Amino acid sequence: MHRKHLAGAATALLLAAMPFGRAHADATDAQLDRIVDEGLRHSQAMANASELVDGIGPRLTNSENFDRATQWALGKFKGYGLADAHLEPYDFGLGWNLDSWDARVIQPRAIVMRSIPVAWSPATGGTITAPVILAPISKKEQFDKWRGKLAGKIVMISLPGEASQTDKPQFRRYEDKDFAAMDQYKLPADETMPYAEGNKGDLFPLELSRFLKQEGAVAMVRKAYRDNGLVYGEGYLYQPGNALALPFVELASEDYRRLARLEVAGKPPVIALSVAARFNDRDLTADNVIADIPGSDPKGGYVMAGAHFDSWIAADGATDDGVPSVLMIEAARIIQSLGVKPKRTIRFALWSGEEEAFTGSTAYIEQHLAHRPTAPNLSPLDYFAQWTGAFPIEKKPGYDELKAYFNLDNGAGKIRGIYAENNGGAAELLGKWLKPFASMGAGNVVMGRTGGTDHEYMQSIGLPAFEFIQDPLDYSSRVHHSNLDTLDHAPPDDVRQAATVLAAMLWQAANSDEVLPRPPLPTAPSKSDPFKVEDPDKE
């Protein structure tokens, strides 16, 4: 954007937000005016985001790149004057570092395929060249069908499916009707282990890889789950002793279906794969980054904001969740620029392991907030599946100190409001804190819940934890986890607005005489519903 136009955009955003400053004369409102001015006129967010996502890049948990990023973040927090900026390690699993890769068709013609190794794939030890065989296998019961047919082959383990067509826009912003749909109280599910089945699916590739190796296959490939050349590379086999038995590569769906069509026609293509990757089994810990702005009241407790610092490997991890992580740093810088201590401490967390079953935030909970009883010596994925349904919840001494937790993990769109997460008592106060920013589009408080990120596990132990609503842009349609997750998909004006609103929410939560009410401490749900009529034909 041209410098003149950028200045005009900043002025427009600032003027839109100023009326609350004129309407209220107390010190807190004056400080909100200063937050708006600093966040919109003097932002460092995009410059910092470029340093992180362009300069350092993807941040797989416990990788060398993640470690570089944590040192960068510590430097930023310390440089902005935060206290006790430090790493909190916890037990995780194997480090894995991807240096290079390639996937191409050799016969019947030369084609470079769009690809990404699946995270924690073994290296190929050079280039593997072999014919493919289409052998879709999704469960152990299908193994017998393929015995004796896979030796020397690169196995295509996914069904090819058909190309998708869509008439829906790839990029959009929320409208009023969208907030109305979100503003619904969601009845809690009577489910004690909601992630157990998903955990089984994540572990099946290990069993499959062992079977394929036993049969003499040399590698396996899968189809990406979206079209349009997107690849992802998610993988969950990071436990020592449970590494994949074969190199594993994901191909863009169009490239995968081309191979499948040729193979079904009786002309199996020959492809070449190379994966240069390195495991680290010497350091099995991962780290969260924690930093504080100390409060003036030693008995005031703290409010907290967090985003997950880890990402997948297909691109730079910009919108998931690099930019939101940078917003934590920018919000800290903005608040520090006030030169005034908040009443309560404001804590910032950059989580690791969110993509691998929320290991970082649950480790923080277990260390500082509460304990949920689980069986000993579980694998990380089994531990998480058990942890979400383990009772009773035992509070730790630090439990009552945390007064509010705010999370950012919905891409790089502007903040449009916040989910009250079924906490009706909190909705009014959240609305009061957001009201000054309604002219920025951020005034919506909805009763609905959202999940799949770190705030959910604070909630699960009865703490007031909330996720911001952000404009979706093209996050879910094409960027999320994909090879398109670069800084190009983070509009600078949205980034400045989000950092400003985040800083203002934290400042108000840290200084308000009112405290967000807590939901009840969860207890084990009933094992059966006395009013539920069971289907007699259901097995």
General description of the model:
With 539 residues, this protein is an alpha/beta fold. It folds into two domains: 3-93 and 284-511, Aminopeptidase, CATH 3.40.630; 97-176 and 198-279, Glucose Oxidase, domain 1 (3-Layer(bba) Sandwich), CATH 3.50.30.30. Helices cover 33% and strands 19% of the residues. It is built from 15 helices and 18 strands. It has an eight-stranded mixed β-sheet with strand order 1-10-12-11-15-18-16-17, with helices on both faces. Helix 3 (27-41) packs antiparallel against helix 15 (492-511), helix 4 crosses helix 9 and helix 9 (318-336) crosses helix 15.
Write the layout of secondary structure elements.
Layout: H1 3-17, H2 19-23, H3 27-41, H4 45-56, H5 64-79, E1 83-91, E2 95-107, E3 111-112, E4 115-117, E5 127-134, E6 154-156, H6 176-182, H7 196-214, E7 219-223, E8 248-251, H8 253-264, E9 270-280, E10 285-293, E11 302-308, H9 318-336, E12 345-351, H10 359-369, E13 370-371, H11 380-387, E14 394-395, E15 402-407, E16 415-419, H12 424-434, E17 444-446, H13 455-459, E18 465-470, H14 475-479, H15 492-511
Parallel strand pairs: 5-6, 6-7, 7-8, 11-12, 11-15, 15-18, 16-17
Antiparallel strand pairs: 1-10, 2-3, 2-9, 4-8, 5-9, 10-12, 13-14, 16-18
Helix pairs in contact: 1-3, 3-15, 4-9, 9-15
